[in-house]
Amino acid sequence: MKISADAYPITVEIPYVLSDVSNLSNPNSLIISGGTILQINWEAGVEKPVHLISTEKLQPLKGITETDINGQRYLKIGAAMTIADCLNNQLVQRNASILTEACEKIAAPAVRNRGTIGGNICSKIGDTISVLLVLQAQLSFFNGKHEYIIPLREWLVKPHPPSSELLTNIFIPIHVTNISTYSFFRKIGRRESFTAAIISVAGYLEFQDTIIKTARLSIGGGAHLPCRLTETEKELINGGETTDWKHLNKVIQADFSSYTDPFVTEEYRKQVAANLFIATIKDFLNRQRKE
Ligand SMILES: Cc1cc2nc3c(=O)[nH]c(=O)nc-3n(C[C@H](O)[C@H](O)[C@H](O)COP(=O)(O)OP(=O)(O)OC[C@H]3O[C@@H](n4cnc5c(N)ncnc54)[C@H](O)[C@@H]3O)c2cc1C
Fold it and tell me: Start and end of every FAD-binding PCMH-type domain (predicted)?
């Protein structure tokens, strides 16, 4: 179904099923979900597209369920679910509590009610991405012909024209384990609330006694392309109480690229990130020792 918007010389298609999605290969068209980022871009002078593909009524992009794929259980989140839907969902709270934490720290309720998790991911700068990286999320995309699944980590560094593929669902593996685990999300902004992040960090650790056996750490926020900190992760394995924190601080700072903007220098961002990771992990180890 196609309608014309009177206010702008833009056509909008509002498909209900994937087979009705056309124009993905059209360079003048753009996918729109909540529109909260696109609206900011347009207000800042970014050129509007000629054609919009709305995800609002696309049923395959709705719902939050558990599902099995090749014997692995996943939490499946439709890309058109809003940040508020994710925040309030019990399956998300139970199986991916750090995603709940991240959603809670995104914008104010009005934006959370409109903005979607799909738009957050496809912006490549959303706060959910660093969390989804440590949760080893996979993404399914519709390319106009069929759907395929790709790890979020691979997709982030894959070059592709904007809106050439439609994000349909997010799959988060569910692991039932007796191992002691700790996961965290921390976001630092220039003000206490409702503000874009200077930096955000996420982590997932598995322990044997007090020794770290698995470490997945990621960084995002601001204009950073979120990424895993692979050298830092290696440095933490078999550490914990014995970790040389001064050395780790240097490893973290060397493990990602940052930038300077009119408000914050690159050095400051790197130092804040290193402090944040180290303080969070040390705090957990201290609490564990006292138990
Ligand atoms: C006041 C304010 C505060 C904000 N604070 C935060 C914050 O704290 N943290 C944060 O992370 N974000 C923040 N945002 C940004 C934004 O609201 C969220 O990232 C939101 O989740 C984006 O989702 P959306 O559906 O509105 O995206 P849209 O604006 O609809 O789309 C964003 C991008 O993704 C593409 N896209 C959307 N859906 C799909 C899809 N299914 N498949 C392929 N491409 C798609 C679009 O083409 C576009 O390029 C804020 C925005 C505002 C206005």
Answer: 5-177
